[in-house]
Amino acid sequence: AQSVAQPEDQVNVAEGNPLTVKCTYSVSGNPYLFWYVQYPNRGLQFLLKYITGDNLVKGSYGFEAEFNKSQTSFHLKKPSALVSDSALYFCAVREGSDYKLSFGAGTTVTVRA
Amino acid sequence: GAGVSQSPRYKVAKRGQDVALRCDPISGHVSLFWYQQALGQGPEFLTYFQNEAQLDKSGLPSDRFFAERPEGSVSTLKIQRTQQEDSAVYLCASSLGAPGGGTYEQYFGPGTRLTVT
After folding, report:
1. A99 to chain B: which residues are within 8 Å by CB?
2. CB contact burial A35-73 (16+ within 10 A = b; e otherwise)
3. Which listed CATH number (2.60.40.10, 3.40.1190.10, 3.30.70.420, 1.10.287.3510) goes with B5-96?
4. pLDDT, tens digit (0-9, with 9 covering 90-100), for A84-104
């Protein structure tokens, strides 16, 4: 079985400050990890993924994520947040040989001007 | 380029009615997925197609839910005799290849918000 935990329902930061959204996962095999962002009344937009290789993955809109195997974590980060980053963020995992994505419950990010 | 599209975007159904939700995946994408997203939750897997073959329907909540992709492109999710607990956003996603053989991400449509009254 595979699962994802996003321990924070909400994250609030000031514009220009660093942003971190936490994610931990559980899979029985090799994890494929993904971050998606959802804006109101829109579908999920792909941000980045970790499959293998460098633990630091860079994605769209200046976001990056760090894979930590020992802590089974895949935290999303952005060095300097923008008001336009305010949205709902989902972490997802699937086992390498599987096709189902398992999503966390989501973290609402609010960036104040 | 064109992304995944879904129609209708919003659907209100009276309890007991049948509904059909349509998904147009990205052209050429082999894999197609349906997810159900309840309010305040992450998406939950419903079913998976590889081309026209439905390889997994383990997430369908009941036998009132039925999905098809007869020509390996457009897919329809049908819900018979809708119940209030079916109210949710239904998301369709597609990916380029078969997941077991690659590292492809899934691209999501905007979803259909179903409200059963």
Report:
1. 31, 33, 48, 55-56, 98-100
2. bbbbeeeebbbbbbbbbeeeeebebeeebbbbbeeeebb
3. 2.60.40.10
4. 999 999 999 988 777 889 999
